[in-house]
Amino acid sequence: MATDLTKTQWTGILLNEELTTELDLSIFRTLYSFEGHKAFASQVGVILGYNGKSPHGALNLEMKL
Q: Which residue ranges in the chain fall short of pLDDT 70?
């Protein structure tokens, strides 16, 4: 189910520390740096310093996937 948010509402969510963690912001910044703002979780994980067989694991947990 899609939700339409205004720019003000989205900004409020991003600035609300009860809703958005520093890791969430890092994930958004990293995704934004990719062409088309799309990347695999493993690509984002490596950039954020997660290594090993599953660099995407911590991100999936953070995103509740």
A: 1-2, 64-65
Distance, in Å, from the CA atom of 23 to the CA atom of 64, rounded to the nearest integer, reads 13
What pLDDT is recorded for position 8? 96
Q: Retrieve residue 44's tokens.
A: 């984002």
The token pair that represents 35 in the structure block: 């062409």
The pLDDT value given to residue 65: 56
Reading the block at residue 49, the tokens are 């310093």
- CA 23, CA 39: separation in Å to the nearest integer? 16
Q: Which of 7, 24, 44 is nearest to 57 (CA)?
A: 44
Do 27 and 46 form a contact (C-beta atoms < 8 A)? no
